[in-house]
């Protein structure tokens, strides 16, 4: 069965069709997941937009529902929505196209001292909603991969990666790219502690345009070849004053 991920716009259209089918037939998501032979977690995350539908999952849902779900994805935004919403900066695609791409993303590991957590962030234009969106991939903790909208206001000159999932927010604040396309800044998120404990956390963050295929993802430790270069990139956040961290009072 093909595990190809479907485009974001098509995944949203499929999610809408599935939700309508569930409401019309008055069946639960668990019942649909059982009938389609997929996990309820996979179905919930796809319907919430936290991960794209795959072709395999979509075919199984079509078989379970007895109806087609794959229509043509919208090819462009309507004429009235050529700019991002005001709350994201009212930018056009032409004004922010230089941000689009794949980035090696680095931050300190929350679970291992001296280690660096590395993954990929993809930034692309979403024609249906007329905005830049981002999606994380190659994460060691894949269920916690984030996605959301990109704000680029003229006033501050900063770039913001915004995640808002059912009111739970995460924010990355990045300086404009350097001449090499690198972006540095701060990540504010929640750190998962023992059990179900969540603690607000902030950490330096570096987004480096991906070049070549020899990149290391996951938890990168000092004994690994990629560590020294990753450490230099991450160290630039403070050393080059891309962000300031204030110490807690004694």
TrEMBL record:
Domain HTH cro/C1-type: 17-72
Coiled-coil residue windows: none
Name by which UniProt lists this protein: HTH cro/C1-type domain-containing protein
Organism whose genome encodes this protein: Methylobacterium jeotgali
Phylogenetic placement of the source organism: Bacteria, Pseudomonadati, Pseudomonadota, Alphaproteobacteria, Hyphomicrobiales
């Amino acid at each position: 069965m093909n595990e190809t991920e479907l485009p974001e716009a098509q995944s949203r259209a499929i999610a809408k069709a599935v939700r309508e089918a569930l409401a019309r037939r008055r069946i639960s998501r668990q019942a649909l997941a059982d009938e389609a032979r997929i996990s309820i977690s996979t179905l919930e995350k796809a319907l919430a937009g936290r991960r794209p539908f795959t072709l395999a999952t979509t075919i199984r849902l079509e078989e379970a529902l007895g109806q087609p779900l794959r229509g043509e994805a919208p090819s462009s935004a309507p004429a009235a929505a050529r700019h991002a919403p005001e709350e994201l900066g009212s930018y056009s695609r032409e004004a922010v196209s230089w941000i689009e791409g794949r980035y090696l993303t680095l931050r300190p590991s929350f679970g291992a001292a001296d280690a660096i957590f590395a993954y990929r962030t993809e930034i692309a234009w979403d024609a249906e909603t007329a905005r830049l969106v981002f999606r994380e991939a190659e994460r060691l903790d894949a269920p916690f991969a984030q996605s959301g909208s990109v704000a680029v206001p003229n006033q501050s000159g900063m770039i913001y990666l915004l995640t808002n999932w059912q009111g739970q927010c995460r924010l990355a604040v990045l300086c404009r790219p350097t001449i090499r396309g690198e972006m540095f800044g701060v990540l504010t998120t929640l750190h998962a502690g023992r059990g179900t404990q969540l603690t607000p956390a902030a950490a330096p963050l570096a987004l480096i345009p991906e070049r070549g295929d020899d990149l290391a993802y996951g938890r990168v430790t000092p004994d690994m070849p990629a560590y020294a270069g990753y450490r230099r990139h991450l160290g630039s956040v403070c050393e080059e004053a891309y962000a300031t961290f204030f110490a807690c009072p004694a």
